[in-house]
Amino acid sequence: MGTEHPADPNGLAELITRAQSGDRRSFDELVRQTFVDTYTLAMRLTANEEDARDVVQETYLRAWKGIDRFRGEAQFSTWLYRITANVSYTHLERRRRHRHEPLDDGAEEMELRGTGGPDGAFESNELADRLSDAIAALPVTLRAVVVLKDVYGLPHEAIAEELDITVAAAKVRLHRARKRLRDALFDEKEGAANAL
């Protein structure tokens, strides 16, 4: 067995090494082991099933072409998150310029429950649905930052690098995204209370 990279708690180092040598089967196994997380992130960033599938396909294509550049300084999953975020952002920007349908078709299919925290679940389905809708309604520039930071825990530096913005811009966007989410969730709650 190959030696595990320090940043490889899932034991993917041997598969990565073989894939870097051109072994397509090892790369296919990496895809199999990381697909659910990659698709989940793409879905959260695009809020659209068709877009998420396109993003995942492009992510793995880029990962295969660039696997020799993966050095193991971060977890393989983090490297994939960065590629997925970058592809999602590019895909949605391109789509925004040529859009024929709203970006948030399918936002109701987003599934934020189950990976949202240590206990793996939100307190209520209603809150999860409202949060899901609020995230889907964010502009893509804000959505990308809030998902990468608050859901996946990436540091500001990694987010800035992947989205090709400054660390200060990443922090500003995160602040704006959180404020919009707070406003959306509390305005909706107050509106419902006032209607009673």
Write a concise keyword list for the protein shown above.
196 residues; Rna Polymerase Sigma Factor, Chain: A; 0% strand; elongated; disordered N terminus
Secondary structure elements and pairings:
Blueprint (H helix, E strand, L loop, with lengths): L12 H8 L3 H23 L2 H18 L9 H22 L27 H13 L2 H12 L4 H8 L3 H29 L1
Task: Give a written overview of the molecule.
By secondary structure, the chain is mainly alpha-helical. The chain has one domain: Rna Polymerase Sigma Factor, Chain: A. It has eight helices and no strands. The longest helix is centred in the last third of the chain and has 29 residues. The radius of gyration is 18 Å and the shape is elongated. The termini are far apart. The N terminus is likely disordered.
| Average predicted confidence as pLDDT | 78
How does the helix and strand content classify structurally? mainly alpha
Poorly predicted spans:
1-7, 100-123
Q: Tell me what portion of residues adopts beta-strand conformation.
A: under 5%
Number of helices: 8
CATH topology: Rna Polymerase Sigma Factor, Chain: A
Can you tell me the CATH class?
A: Mainly Alpha
- CATH architecture descriptor text: Orthogonal Bundle
CATH superfamily annotation: RNA polymerase sigma factor, region 2, helix turn helix motif
Tally of domains: 1
Question: Which overall shape is indicated by the principal axes computed on the Cα atoms?
Answer: elongated
List SSEs in N-to-C order. HHHHHHHH
Radius of gyration: 18 Å
Helicity range: 55-70%
Question: How many distinct beta strands?
Answer: 0
The largest sheet, given as strand count, sense and whether it forms a barrel, is: none
